[in-house]
Amino acid sequence: MLQNMEEKTYTMGIDVGSNFIKLVLVDYDSQSKIIDKHTEKIRKRNPTQVADEMIQNMLNKHKLKYENIAYLASTGEGDLVKRKRGHFYGMTTHAKGANFFFPDGRTIVDMGALYVRAIKVSPDARVEDYKMTGQCASGSGQFVENISRYLGLSIEEVGDVSLQSDTPEVSSGICAVLAETDVINMVSRGISTPNIIKGIHISIANRIIKLLSSLKAESPIILTGGMALNKGMMQAIEEQLAESGKKFDIKTHPDAIYAGAIGAALWGGYRHFKLKEKQSMAV
Amino acid sequence: MQSIDELLTYCEKVAFDLNFAHAKNWKSQNEKRVIVGYLPIYVPREVIHASSGLPVGIMGVGDRKQIIKGDAYYQSYICHLPRGVIEMALDKNLDGFDGFLFPAICDCIRNLSGMYKLAHKGKFQRYFDYPQNFDPKIGGVFYIQEMEKVMDDIFNINGVRADVNSLNNSIRLYNINRRLIEAIYDIRQEFPWRLSAVETYHILRAGIAMPVEEHNEILKQVLDYIQTDRGEPMDNIRVVVSGSFCEQPPIGLIKSIEMAGCYIVDDDFMLGSRWILGDVEENTDDPLQALTNAYLYQSQFSSAYYDVGNPKGKRLVAQANKRGADGIIFSAASFCDPALLDRPEMQKECDEAGIPHINFQYHENTGQFKVIKEQAGTFSDSIKLWA
Questions:
Q1: B381 part of contact set with chain A, CB < 8 Å
Q2: Which of A71, A87, A91 sits opposite B261 (nearest CB)?
Q3: pTM of the prediction?
Q4: pLDDT digits (tens, 9 = 90+) for A5-14
Q5: Which of these, A118, A119, A116, A159, lies nearest to A140 by C-alpha position?
Q6: Are A238 and A273 contained in the same domain?
Q7: Closest alpha carbon within chain B to A270
Q8: What angle, rounded to 10 degrees, do the helices at A193-215 and A141-150 form?
């Protein structure tokens, strides 16, 4: 059981993605700490139910009740979360989460399942500008997952396999359908799996670099989202940046996948006190 | 008494029945009854009701009907609403309607009245004009004549002429209707989670496809239900949505704004039902004059109507302040000239009043709301975190 429950301000952030739901419990104060975190793959289940169970399990684990949580904030597909106090948009929460990991970060690249988004932020995590990949899914984590499945790999293996590449074969960076056709051709031409995967990573890396260029990104660049933990992806971005002559310091964090959920919990804490202040002023 | 969920399901069904079966069923019960369809925004429904008629609002087809024939009637740079309304007529959705009123709000609607005339839809098709001169001796007289023409049209069909008593009774019923709707908005202003904007929309839209007596009963029940808490309050911002007075936004758009963290505390979605502010004088020897006075002096503001000496921008700012709104969302149909032409002036007023605002456009059949959700979401965050 958590100590001094009445003196602490606990907040929760839940990030509902298209594949994974991420949940964090935060002890909110000037030195906010992550108490617990949990990720759950949705698979073919009802996301609302999965989210609800995750919240309840985490509360039970820490012998907390919903009422003990000062602010439960959702982000991502937040409308799928039944019990919550507020919702923050994904860009706002990723900016805050990245700022929590690396306060000096001025550019965030959120690499999610459905798109990649480059966000410029102020020192206090305010979104100043952003660029994101268009309608096509070829720049997304879901695409990488699909390709890895076709090649008989799990998503966890993709990064290490990519690092084994020696002569990567770059696929289409414009269209997921064309890229998938490219991959089928590569397989029939006998291209090795590491070279195919690395080629996919390079193609996504090039799209990210284009986003960074049009955003006039500033270093350091913080990678967040599920793909940020993919070592092969990281390497491809670094290599492509070097090749294009751009000097950026790239950083990621072991909890990068929780950036949205952490950001939601932190902004939730901020709102909790802001609302409290508003209330006391009204009295 | 039905549960609130049952009421909402019923309202949604009636509101979006493009065949208007409920209205046609009402008509079939008495041979003197007539159905008069009207386009957005406002018509004085009292004169139709008092003539044994049911005024039925035709708000377009939304995303519930594929437009094929309607596209042949309008150029690509014309809004979506009239295409759907033509399609409904050609598909016989509106068979059984006795007449149609096309309020003067823009050239598209004006042309639509001509198309209905050429296609011989209904027994009368009237372009219903409004005074732009607010002198009661000029504009007022003109407006009375416009209403009398509608009464004549209906008399020629069913032989029923509205008299002082029937008009006073109709005014009384629509006064109740407007009061109940405003009472719901007032409760939502304080407790917006008790009835979502989508639910409110369904209730109001059902009201233009059923007799006012029935709608008043539904409104009373809804009002009873939302006196006590329903749903959980959320840390959302409060917004006024402006510019959706004619072509109606798809339900997905209203939902997207709500899901992005915004409580819609006022809007102009079903503006015709809320057009007259306050009561129309109801025990009078001259009810047509009472309706005229209400139009001249108690009209809500809208981009589609003349606003001499009472600028819309200022009225929008006053509305936002009255509702305690944190911001305004300008949401207009694509190619809606009145809304889009007024927008810069209204935004200027908001800027001067320090009210944050965003804007976007839609079609009634828009199916993708990602960008709108993104805009509304970032708008909500910017107010919650940085205002």
A1: yes
A2: A87
A3: 0.90
A4: 557 899 999 9
A5: A116
A6: no
A7: B385
A8: 170
